[in-house]
Specification:
Elements (H helix, E strand, L loop, with lengths): L9 H11 L6 E9 L3 E8 L4 H16 L3 E7 L5 E7 L10 H22 L4 H6 L8 H32 L7 E7 L2 E7 L9 H31 L5 E4 L7 H10 L1 H4 L4 E4 L1 H16 L7 H10 L1 H20 L3 H13 L17 H18 L4 H10 L18
Antiparallel strand pairs: 1-2, 2-4, 3-4, 5-6, 7-8
Helix pairs in contact: 5-6, 5-9, 6-9, 6-10, 6-13, 9-13, 10-11, 11-12
Amino acid sequence: MAWDGWQAGAPDVIDKLKTQVFGFDTFWVTSVDNYGHDGAVFKGNVRGRDPAVSYQKMRDRLQTAFNGAYELFLLEDKEEKPTVVVMPQGRGLDTQISRFTEIWLAALFALATGVTTFNSAGVPLLEFFIAPFSTIVTQQDFVDALPGVLAFFFALGSHDFGHYQAAKRQGLELYLPFYIPAGFGLLGSFGSITRVRNFVPNREALLDLAVSGPLLGTAVSGSMLLLGFLLTAAGLTNIGVDTPAFADSTLVALLAGVFVGPDGLSQPVTEVNFLVLAGWAGLIANALQLIPAGELDGAKMVLGCWGRRAGSAVSVFTTGALGFSAITGNALSFYWVLLVLFLQRGPITPCFEELSAPKNESNRKAALALLVFSLVVLVPFPIEVAYAILQLQQPGFIVPQSFPTDLLGP
């Protein structure tokens, strides 16, 4: 075969890889092919019971033979057969940006997110930018909105802090988070995009990185929501919510029924503590990141738990489901699927070694729990169930008297 794209003297490099890196105790090569313009793909069989051990042997031998000039990846092809990819050091990370660009982009996204978050908290900043002479914004507006804005940013920051802690454990470096502005109802931000500067070593590390952010972010946001409902039950309220809006989330609807009760939910508007909205918004932002599509945390969890082929299949299905939801009128799904397609569509950057399944059962269980919990947060309270409860319970319990039951028909 002709090696015209990898490097000058490529046949010598291939022979050296076959004799000094691969072998009967690591990887038995059956065929070789080009990988892009400067890499090579080796098909064959992994030798040894543990692919991680075989990979480490090959990596050590590669370092000795070529003094760090090449990187080696042990992956699965589309047919789930072992494949080794070798490419020059430093290739494959196409998203690298300079430190200066990283800082100003992160600052710009954070500023835009601050604007949309204050706007969601009741300060009409977007209206002011559109019609500055007819829109009044006062200092008191910012003072009133500030506690909720700070609480929401604390929820967002806890998500990213979880990622950074996991990256530190795994020896990885992350770019600064790019917060994505939103402005839908109580949601001031969709969360952040956080890129990895270097290659992730294996699925174990990828799963740890993907789980840690949403786990901490969800715990903080959930605690905030629960505390807000407790303060609401104690009479410490300072913001009104359209009562039927609680049905937008199964979790929030159930908590409202328990903590607010019949009297509080019997009116068109329910007074709550600001932490309810901050925690709710934080849970939505974390739950959106848990959707298993593109390069979102949820997709990385699926890849980490079950491999790339399963991850790709789930991602395609989920993206299709989001698209269907968008065309049927769900505005949040519409904007989220656009974000996934243009900013997070993937594929997820390969790990150095992807054949070994994660051994940390805690992370696997946490991933499954988070994926299920995200549905409880994002899926509306079933209207049929709500109507049944309305018939069985006293008026106002979970479903307020103002609930639009006329939509259900006779």
